[in-house]
Amino acid sequence: MKYFLGLWLIPMSLFWAWFGLSYYDMNFGFSFLSRDIHNLVFGIYANLLGTDYETIVTGFIKACIFDSFIISAIVAYRKRKQIKAWWQQRKSSDDNYETNQESSVVAAE
Predict the structure, then answer these.
(1) Integer angstrom CA distances of residue 18 from 30, 83, 89
(2) How confident is the model over 64-87, as a mean pLDDT?
(3) Local structure of 15: helix, strand or coil
(4) DSSP letters spanning 11-53
(5) So what's the pLDDT on residue 57?
(6) Are 27 and 21 in contact (CB under 8 A)?
(7) Residue 93 DSSP code
(8) Keyword Ribosomal protein, does the record have it (predicted)?
(9) 49 Cβ neighbours under 8 A, 6+ residues apart
(10) pLDDT 10s digits, 25-67
(11) Cα–Cα distance, 26 to 50 (Å, whole number)
């Protein structure tokens, strides 16, 4: 499972780091982080797909969000027993806290 998450997290981190730095033109002397390369890459994608530049950027964002939900669902499914145990422990500690609070209240005279 950790390899699965690594194979998802590493490319996503690299892509979004490049996207953020190149979008704001923080290139630190590297040409691949410049805004010109950013526009060129997304312009090539737009030409290949026959769509607008803005459509490509929003498509990447939507795809990454969708992928993140799918990965989260897979992880939650694989760890469902641990999540259920945590939830039951949490609920029982909340119930114990409420009963302790009710029993410790002294009636005013």
Answers:
(1) 11, 34, 42
(2) 93
(3) helix
(4) HHHHHHHHHHHHHTT--TT-GGGSHHHHHHHHHHHHHHHTS-H
(5) 87
(6) yes
(7) H
(8) no
(9) 56
(10) 898 989 989 999 999 999 999 999 999 888 888 989 999 999 9
(11) 29
